Structure formats: structure tokens, C-alpha cells
Amino acid sequence: MAAQGLQLLTLTGACHAFAAFYQEQRTVMGAVDEAGAVIQKRVLCPVQRDIPVRAAVAVQVHLALATHAKQFEAVYAEGAALALGQAEGCTKEVHGKDDP
Question: Model's pTM, two decimal places?
């Protein structure tokens, strides 16, 4: 009988076994809660302010967009060349073909 006081699971009834199991489980959960309380105290430490913040941004150039932009430059260059007088040569050729 004296040994039963030291060992929790030696009682024969099912209700006694589960009561002892739940008591041990509560003991373990209490230990887990204690560790969590220490972590909560560490989280509540003062926050440092006015710290320089740096960020790195990766910029990628899409090759299809780069060639598309170069195509626009060619269109603008052709338009500028036509505006400078090369359009007259085209009109003379067209008129020259109509004349007998």
C-alpha cells in the first residue's frame, strides 16, 4: 500500500488510470506553458527605433520588351527621316510612274 502513493498508475480502476494519466499530462502541459511564458517575456523587450533599413531590389529586363522598344526606335527614326524630305523622293517616283 505504501508503494501505491508513489506510483500513480498502480490503481486498478479505469477511472483511476485516466485520472493519473491526465494529472501527468497536465504536469507536462504546465512545463510547456512555463517555457512559453519565458518566450513571451523575451518578445516584450523594448524595440529599437531609428534603425537604418536597407532593401535590395532585383530588376530584370525582359528580352521581348527590349526588342519591342528597339522596334519603336526604328519606327520613330523612319518617321523622322520622312519628315526631313525623303518623302518628296517617294512622291516624285509615284508621279514619275504615272507620267508617260
Answer: 0.17
